[in-house]
Amino acid sequence: MIIDSNKLSIAKKQIGSLQKQIVYDTRDYPISYIVSKFSQGSYFIPTYQRNKVWKTHQKERFIESLLLGYPIPLIFLSEQSDGRLEIVDGVQRITTLSDFLNMKITLNNLDKLDSLKGFTFDDLPISEQRKLEDKSLRIIVLGSNTELTTRIDLFNRLNTSAEKANDSEIRSGVLSENKFQLFIEELSQSDRFSKMVKMSEKKNIRKESSELVSRFFAYSNNYKNFKHSVREFITNYIVLVGSSWSEKRKNKLQRQFDNTFNFAERYFREGFLQNNRSQTPRVRFEALMVGINLALQKEPSLTVTIENTDKLLESKDFISLTTSDASNSRPKVISRIEYVRDYLLESGKIND
Fold it and tell me: Cα–Cα 20 to 30 A to 118, which of 6, 31, 112, 240?
């Protein structure tokens, strides 16, 4: 590839348009101070990180690293309007420090300091207790005026745990006051949704149900504006709808949800959303539930037969459009939901 002046100009403009001004400052706090502020509630854990807990050995390795004087990665906090600091990255480190200093951790399986087996914090030599309490950790504090979309992206990039926070977990934390987001989470935990949509316990804990409901509304009402990033598309849609939330909007979306699930319960056989592992893949859910919703928006009195929907699920085109490797490219997303929509509308004409 030849990098000419035109490409350089395009690249420069893109970098400039996407760069965000992030206000932050750097602070060095002793461990004793960090633990004290955490105990007082001045630092809090966002909801999207509460399911992530280090195993015992991970906690012991972290404590051992501190005792050995190893450098520790930066901790990221974010200022909130009430003066508290949200822990963006460093939840496990801070909670481990709090537990250790409060004698909730006993060292049993250290890699190097095996002489400390059975020790709690109080059992350490006084000099080591003081060194640990006085050791400073570097903190990056993001300003409260950091743009929302930028913060969401930062949360995703800065999460350094073995298992990153996924998009739904991040939205649940960052958009915790967005009424549309709260409505989505309420529907995702409803008996009706749980009865029809099947997923593993792990996926359910990690808010996969919220992700599916979010996609249902975003694609149903805005899919023609989808470009390439599913994360940004859904997040921006939730922010937009939530900013003008009203009882009228809520009732409209509730009707879409109810009508779609009513139709599915009536005209599809039980388990139609599941694959051969008794799970509900995203692409299958999107194609079917969004396709049904789009069809009902065009023809509210649509009727089909179970034989029609059986043929839909067995068709080569549907199977091809909803295989596990189906991409989230704009053409593929549009193709799979419009295929179901058009199939149902045509079936409805035949049955008239």
Answer: 31
CA gap 231, 213 in Å, rounded: 14
**What does the pLDDT look like over 289-342, one tens digit per residue?**
999 999 999 999 999 999 999 999 999 999 999 986 667 888 899 999 999 999
- CA nearest to 49, candidates 215, 160, 139: 160
Could you give the 3-state DSSP secondary structure of residue 187? helix
Q: Which token pair is 101?
A: 């200093």
Q: Rounded to an integer, what distance in angstroms lies between the CA atom of residue 270 and that of residue 274? A: 9
Q: Which residues contact 73 (CB under 8 A, 6 or more apart)?
A: 90, 160
Secondary structure class of 217 (helix, strand, coil):
helix
Element (H, E) at 34: helix 31-40
Mean pLDDT (whole number) for 58-76: 92
Q: Are 110 and 116 in contact (CB under 8 A)?
A: yes
Given CA atoms 107, 110, 114, 115 in this order, what sign does their dihedral have?
negative
What does the alpha-carbon distance between residue 288 and residue 324 come to, in Å, rounded to a whole number? 15
Burial of 324 (0-12, 13-18, 19+ CB in 10 A): exposed
* pTM (predicted TM-score): 0.63
Report CA torsion sign: 71, 73, 74, 75: negative
Measured distance CA(195)–CA(127) in Å, rounded: 59
* 76: nearest Cα among 63, 56, 93, 64: 93
Strands (DSSP E) found in the chain: 24-30, 43-44, 75-79, 85-89, 136-142
Sequential DSSP letters for 36-90: HHHHHTSEE--GGGTT----HHHHHHHHHHHHTT-----EEEEE-TTS-EEEEE-
pLDDT per residue over 196-230, tens digit each? 999 888 888 888 999 999 999 999 999 999 988 88
